[in-house]
């Protein structure tokens, strides 16, 4: 909640949400006398309030707090604005209420600036910028969602407060829809599913943000990597392998040192003179491959690709499951080309992205043209200061999008430090957009490294670089796919494609032979030989989202059949093993879902 005197325009819903934060604070102070209020802002879909409450509040207490809020709403308590001097405000938070948090906020305001306070009813007041509803009955249907710890001002050296989250909507339908969405997102959460399906893990000894891929998660990665590599090879990309570290010197040349150092790991002192650092991006390494030889126009476009490992020093508080990590593998490529080739190269990349998304079943993506922000350029700024270069890059991207007939939205301040880019935006289950695939046009790095090629005219020319990622980083794409499929990966990606379930011990040998037949064709299969009831085995395979369960008993053993259960369709009946193998082969090849 901010301090300064002026009302700001806000949507009706935000006004309701913010007013609900006050009602929450009033209710908490009534139920827990002596609670000290810190801040209570509006956030996406709702609000929270951070408070120093002299009791440990749990989720079980939320209904009671909601009830107290409802009483304030039912009474239609009016919101009234008042301007106080800084002195009066400080007095209020020293004598009437001892509140060091509000005092700290107020101390930061210039002495002459009046502070606005809002009354809720005639007996409760809070420092606030507003605006608010005229009275509490104007607040739409709401619900408190959860409670969490939060440090005052996000600083772990300062007091830990209790943060209560709530949501407010214009009508009951919207509220219920949102609560359904939240539950759906919880069910799909990649951290939860990743654990249930045994895809990845973290270890305290390895460190935060450094995922360990378990065999099943590694399988999904490997399948994606093989598939995309093959698509790239078929489109004239050449795959290379380069190291995760380089001398700091290289990043001084590239400009990463100037513009990207904050996201890099600390430098390693190797021997007396060498300073090495983990790479935050793969581009400079690929540039070294380009420079390893004299290049001719005949070699262009030169498309160098790699599932390159990158290291980013994200703050530990920002790490989250697979979506924010410190080590990632990017489906990276750098296309070195002539200016005349830029447009067709961009088009080729967009077509590859569209193909890949089609196979993965991604249909709700949209394009964003990410541009620089001239006010954040130059020494110490985020962007290279070269307006002419930025304009040129932007023009190429726009022309290519026009040729493709694709719509896009422009986003200033979202470019890479060296050039504008097209970002392909996806939505997570809660509707937040995230970037997975990108295409960037870059004139900067070729000039930093003095790249050249010999043209048709026998003269030296400077190539242009296109940086692109199709499935982006494997961590992000897999986190996205886990949530999209809710763990039910299509056959070609499923870590286990079939489980063979012998009905009794005497069918174990036949079950093993069925499994061998699948394995011979490179299918991923398990035999569930546990001494459990068949129904329990089916339930477990179903919970693991295994596409097929092959139940085998006396009759199957005699006839050389398998009784097929599909995870969604259920029992498909007995069929000859060869028939099942042909179906599976077909689904793998065509990547059907
Ligand atoms: Zn307020
Ligand atoms: Zn790059």
Architecture overview:
- The protein has 593 residues and is of the alpha+beta class.
- Helices cover 36% and strands 25% of the residues.
- The strands form 7 sheets. An 8-stranded mixed sheet has the order 11-15-16-23-20-19-17-18. Strands 1, 2, 3, 7 and 8 form a 5-stranded antiparallel sheet that branches.
- α6 packs across α14.
- The longest helix is centred in the first third of the chain and has 20 residues.
- It starts with 11 loop residues before the first helix and ends with a helix.
- Bound molecules: zinc ion (ZN) (2 copies).
Labels describing this entry:
single chain; 593 residues; alpha+beta; 8-stranded mixed β-sheet; 5-stranded antiparallel β-sheet; 28 strands; disordered N terminus; binds zinc ion
Report the average pLDDT across residues. 93
Bound compounds: zinc ion
Tell me the radius of gyration: 30 Å
Number of strands: 28
Q: Major beta sheet, specifics? A: 8 strands, mixed
Residue runs with pLDDT of under 50 for 5 or more positions: 1-9
N-to-C span = 48 Å
**Can you tell me the overall shape?**
globular
Q: How much strand content do the residues show?
A: 25-35%
| Number of helices, counting only DSSP H or I runs of 4 residues or more | 18
Strand order of the largest sheet: 11-15-16-23-20-19-17-18
Q: Give helix % range.
A: 25-40%
Give the helix/strand class: alpha+beta
Topology:
Elements: H1 12-31, E1 36-37, E2 42-43, E3 46-52, H2 62-74, E4 79-84, H3 86-96, H4 100-107, E5 115-120, E6 125-127, E7 142-151, E8 160-168, H5 172-188, H6 190-196, E9 200-201, E10 212-213, H7 215-234, E11 238-239, E12 245-247, H8 248-254, H9 256-259, E13 268-270, E14 274-278, H10 283-291, E15 302-311, E16 327-337, H11 342-360, E17 366-371, H12 387-404, E18 408-412, E19 421-427, E20 433-442, H13 444-448, E21 453-454, E22 460-461, E23 464-473, H14 474-485, E24 498-502, H15 508-520, E25 525-527, H16 534-543, E26 548-552, H17 554-559, E27 561-566, E28 570-576, H18 577-590
